[in-house]
Design brief:
The complex is a heterodimer. Chain A contains 15 helices and 21 strands. Chain A is an alpha/beta fold. Chain A has 3 domains: 2-145 and 297-387, FAD/NAD(P)-binding domain; 148-294, FAD/NAD(P)-binding domain (3-Layer(bba) Sandwich); 401-473, no CATH class. In chain A, helix 2 packs parallel to helix 9, helix 5 crosses helix 7 and helix 9 (345-359) packs antiparallel against helix 10. The mean pLDDT of chain A is 93. Chain B has one domain (21-102): Ubiquitin-like (UB roll), CATH 3.10.20.440. The longest helix of chain B is centred in the first third of the chain and has 9 residues, at 11-19. Chain B starts with 10 loop residues before the first helix and ends in a 16-residue tail after the last strand. Classes of the chains: A alpha/beta, B alpha+beta.
């Protein structure tokens, strides 16, 4: 699709450019195209779906025949609509394409559209892919990735992000191990354990750092989201059926190598007692796979690139500020999905659709739908707030670190190095900590260690984490890795 | 770039595409992949869990985030270094190479002492 449209795509000024083809982006693109405006959907993935609806390659597997994928009917319906819009020319889908730079409309008249600078990924194609696309309005739906906390031994092969373990299952039916433990906090640990068990992996435990008592104070909110309740019940049943223990108030305190010394062999578990203190008694589980997840971190590269305002959310993630129409603080830029606050696929889908309707200037034609979407978003946001309150990152998480524990995996910066920079060198903020230690300066640019290093910097000052702690670690430019040859126009 | 318009829809075409076996090598060792698999997935299926060593501590690394964020899984494919194995699709005949462990012992940071 992208190939035959590439030269045309470069010359068209689209009404709406949607970046990201997960639930929010698909909802946005489908709604905007339905309203009759010209839409370009730009996505890093080689096929529609994002992380949530990741599925096997469509050149070998008919997606309409897949079973066991969550909210799959919703995805197939959206996919069908987008395909139809692409066939009629109402929409253009640029797959395997990264946006590395966003150029704003010229100030004081002149060119009034946004210019997105693109980088093709994936295998080389016959056609020349477009280097830029222009659009009047943007809908940014960049999604999120697993948030991590360092643990001694967490850089051993066989320790993975829970979302990565799931991506291998959903996209490739590939098992990352045979005996697993799933640990961290939040409801997302449950589908990961369930899917591993369904593929025949022996899941020895799901370790949830928090107790479940905090949910009790949110019962009125929970009662208004019956779908979430039945979802939780489904997971509880399948964990029980697979005899997977769900251990609350339990954390992983260490990962040990196997006899070869080159991959994970065992983990150590401990109970979290009163005041968040990890108890002395330890239990050992022999495993070959550790799946870790502490909630999610939204991808904010594009949000920072357009200069949209950010804030710290209830889960201590930096997120974009949006109004009731999903409009950011920058005129013409809408944001939907996890980047506006981590809340799951159905919230992202509703926010995307609302953004699509408003960005297509069809709000006055679809008043009832807009009202219904706002109600749905309010309900799901309230549930997300309850979830964040019930599943916080343990305030005293650094207690399981040792001096040698790597906080920054890329630059191999140990906890003791950060501690020294804080106590001896006076690093009192995340940016100084980064400059003194190289923490968060490597390949991943702080995507993995950013939350941990910002919270260590804040903790070193005895204060709570703020948006200003997180902002210096949110990457700005370029928004995607781009080779110099591409910049030079080759 | 592949897009939404180029998909085979015919069942036989899909079955034939799915039945193909892609051959590739890792440091000369012959391995196979299913069509559409990433290098990271194919290596995991082959029981390979690490293919790089860190430049300071010489620590083994493989897949971590699995979705292109962490850059732990960097690999050299057909002579092109620093590609993310989790995103890179296997191509028939692809030659992958690992990076050797660092020869020097881990260099400790002056600050860490």
């Amino acid at each position: 699709m992208s190939g035959q449209h590439s030269s045309a795509a470069e010359q068209t000024v689209f009404d709406v450019a949607v970046v990201g083809a997960g639930p929010a982006g698909l909802g946005a693109a489908a709604a905007a195209a339905r309203a009759g405006v010209r839409v370009v959907l730009i996505d890093a993935g080689h096929q529609l779906g994002g992380q949530y609806w990741r599925h096997p390659d469509e050149s070998t597997t008919d997606p309409t025949r897949l079973a066991g994928y969550r909210d799959w009917g919703e995805f197939l319906a959206l996919r069908e609509r987008i395909l139809r819009h692409c066939q009629t020319g109402a929409a253009v889908h640029l797959a395997s394409t990264h946006v590395w730079f966003v150029e704003p409309p010229a100030a004081g008249g002149g060119r009034q559209s946004w210019t997105l600078h693109l980088m093709p990924g994936g295998p080389p194609s016959r056609e020349t892919p477009p280097r830029t696309v222009c659009a009047e309005r943007l809908i940014l739906c960049p999604g999120a990735y697993d948030r991590q906390l360092p643990i001694p031994g967490w850089d051993l092969p066989g320790v993975m992000a829970a979302g990565g373990v799931q991506a291998l299952l959903k996209g490739h039916h590939t098992l990352s191990g045979r005996r697993a433990v799933v640990a961290g906090t939040g409801p997302f640990l449950l589908p990961v354990a369930q899917q591993l068990a369904r593929h025949g992996v022996d899941v020895l435990a799901v370790c949830e750092a928090n107790g479940l008592a905090r949910w009790m104070r949110h019962m009125p909110v929970v009662a208004r989201t019956p779908a979430k309740v039945s979802e939780a019940a489904t997971y509880a049943r399948s964990l029980a059926r697979a005899r997977i223990p769900y251990r609350t108030a339990t954390v992983l305190t260490r990962v040990d190598p196997d006899a070869s010394g080159t991959q994970v062999g065992a983990v150590e578990l401990a109970r979290v007692g009163p005041g968040g203190l990890v108890e002395k008694a330890r239990q050992r589980l022999e495993v070959d796979l550790v799946a870790l997840g502490w909630g999610f971190t939204p991808s904010l590269e594009l949000i920072n690139a357009v200069g949209a305002q950010t804030r710290i959310d209830a889960d201590q993630s930096l997120v974009a500020v949006v109004d009731d129409d999903q409009q950011s603080t920058v005129p013409g830029v809408f944001i939907a999905g996890e980047a506006t606050g981590v809340g799951g696929a159905m919230l992202a889908l509703a926010g995307g659709e609302l953004a699509g309707i408003v960005a297509a200037e069809a709000g006055h034609l679809e008043r009832a739908r807009v009202r219904a979407l706002r109600r749905e978003i309010g309900r799901l946001r309230a549930f997300a707030a309850a979830m964040h309150d019930a599943h916080p990152v343990p305030a005293r998480w650094p207690q399981w670190l040792t001096a040698e524990t790597l906080v920054c995996r890329c630059e191999e910066v140990a906890y003791a190095t950060l501690g020294n920079a804080i106590t001896e060198l006076g690093a009192n903020d995340a940016r100084t900590l980064k400059l003194l230690t190289r923490c968060a300066m490597g390949w991943c640019q702080g995507h993995v260690c950013g939350y941990a290093s910002a919270s260590l910097a804040a903790g070193g000052q005895g204060r709570a984490l703020t948006a200003d702690d997180l902002r210096p670690l949110a990457k700005q430019f370029p928004c995607a890795p781009v080779p110099l040859a591409h910049l030079a126009g080759e | 770039m592949t897009g939404t318009g180029e998909r085979p829809t015919d069942e036989h075409a899909l079955a034939a595409a799915a039945a193909r076996v892609l051959k590739f090598t890792l440091d000369g060792r012959e391995l196979t992949a299913r069509p559409g698999q990433s290098v990271g997935a194919a290596l995991t299926d082959a029981g390979v869990r690490s293919w790089r060593h860190t430049r300071r501590g010489g620590r083994p690394r493989g897949l971590f985030c699995g979705i292109g964020i962490c850059y732990d899984c960097l690999i050299t494919a057909d002579g092109v270094p620093n590609l993310r194995a989790c995103l890179l699709p296997v191509v028939d005949g692809m030659r992958l190479t690992t990076s050797a462990p660092a020869k020097t012992p881990p260099a400790y940071d002056a600050l860490a002492r």
